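REQUEST ID: PR-0412
SUBMITTED BY: lab tech R.K.
PRIORITY: routine
TASK: structure prediction, single protein chain
INPUT:
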Amino acid sequence: MARRTDGTDAPRTTVPSPSDLEPWTPGPGEVLSGDRIEGKRIVVLDLAGERLPDVELEESVVETLRAGDADLRGLRVRDTVVEELDAPVLRVSSSTWRDVRVTGGRVGSAELYDSGLNGVEFVGMKLGFVNLRGATLTDVVFRDCVVDELDLADAKLLRVAFPGTRIRAVEGTNTRIEHVDLREADLDRVERLEGLRGATIGTDQLSTLAPLLAAQAGYRVD
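STATUS: complete
OUTPUT:
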């Protein structure tokens, strides 16, 4: 995304384009803790229910990633496209994501606390509760997603945008944000925005958000 000239910088992301990939169909139990998966095209990567901390996924394309109830703490993903992510519960705390694009899928609860996301795009996803406590997000885009709730306590956000994304609630304390852009987000049904104080909103959003912002500031509107 290009830089803006209005004081709020846009996220600087590039679409990963892994090439010369080897087709691979991992069988049950073939992926082990600490494994490094590199240069693969995988139709289905089914890790559901597995305990696989510290797995690395690099320069690959995964058409469908199933990770429900898997323990993927310390996961490292780099220069990779995931076309669909399916996980009722996604356990990826303390993970690292760099130059990654996830283009669809549903996640009920995402445990991303203490993680680092750099140059990441989430596109067309349905996200329930997203726990980003203590996480660092740099150059991250949520595009055309539905997000029920973001927990950003103690998180740090730099150049994060939500174009076309419907957000229901954002909360958290000690959140540090810089160049966070809500102007193209759908905030018509938002209930809480405590975790995004200091973000940029559009003038057309101000009238919709005025009662919510007044309540958060402690004003009574009569």
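NOTES: Residues 1-5 have pLDDT under 50 and may be disordered.
REVIEWED BY: pending
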